[in-house]
Amino acid sequence: MSRASFNTTPSSSESTAESEVDAGTEQTRRTLLLGALATTACLGCSTQTRAGEDPPGSDERPQKGDLLVFSEGDQEGKLITAADLPAGGPPVHAWPKDPNTSVVRSASRLNEILIIRLDPAELDEKTRARAVDGILAYSAICSHAGCPVTAWVKSDVGDKDVFKCMCHNSEYDPREGAQVVFGPAPRRLAALPLALADGSLSVAGNFIGKVGGVQPG
Q1: Are the C-beta atoms of residues 98 and 66 closer than 8 Å to each other?
Q2: Rounded Cα–Cα distance for residues 89 and 73 (Å)
Q3: If exposure means fewest CB atoms within 10 Å of the residue's CB, which of 108, 116, 139, 185 is most exposed?
């Protein structure tokens, strides 16, 4: 009796079918992988976009109760205390910070503040009434063309140190409510009321006067 034999070599049609199945599977895997990569990339872009956005409240003007933090230098972002202010200047540049959300209101350059400590005896009556232990705060934006007020130098018209905008040489005397003492600025710097508790400075009210320049910077 002859033994039955089986042919284990696949036919050409079977091989073609198997190849098509394998190719289809591989294509599906590639499609899924590319889709996952694309989704991950999009999520990364979305996160990056959100991370680059200014947080809510960061462009709002200083509000009562805001804390004050350094806006520049090695201590940028740290709270400013009375001990950080040298008597007689120079001023410290600051941002207001929401104490509840910890948002620093740095999204608008109009929020930058000059804080200075002077001898109360040198201040005029109105300025002294607003000062806290001789500490005063003013807008750091020149009222002329909106440039930053960056210098604390000897006045061109006297022997006192004054705030100076280096763009067009406007000068302001903080002892007299930051009134203009030299240059083209049309009005004094806006003043910001302060409060002092346990050595820490905070905002006591809204700006007094208009912030910013009357001409494009």
Answers
A1: yes
A2: 16
A3: 108
Which of 126, 117, 143, 127 is closest to 196 using CA atoms? Answer: 117
Q: So what's the pLDDT on residue 198?
A: 85
Q: Name, in order, each residue with C-beta under 8 angstroms of 187's C-beta and a sequence gap of 6 or more.
A: 143, 180, 209, 210
52 to each of 45, 62, 95, 109, 182, how far by Cα in Å? 11, 22, 19, 17, 40
Q: Quick one: DSSP state of residue 59?
A: T
Distance CA 123, CA 115 (A): 15
* Cα 186 from Cα 163, distance rounded (Å): 15
Tokens representing 160 are 């006192």
Structure tokens at 11: 């036919």
DSSP secondary structure string for all residues of 158-211: SSSEEEE-TTT--EEEGGGTTEEEESS--SPPPB--EEEETTEEEE-S--BS--
Q: What is the pTM of this model?
A: 0.75
Portion of the chain with pLDDT greater than 70, in percent = 75
Predicted local confidence at residue 197, as pLDDT: 87
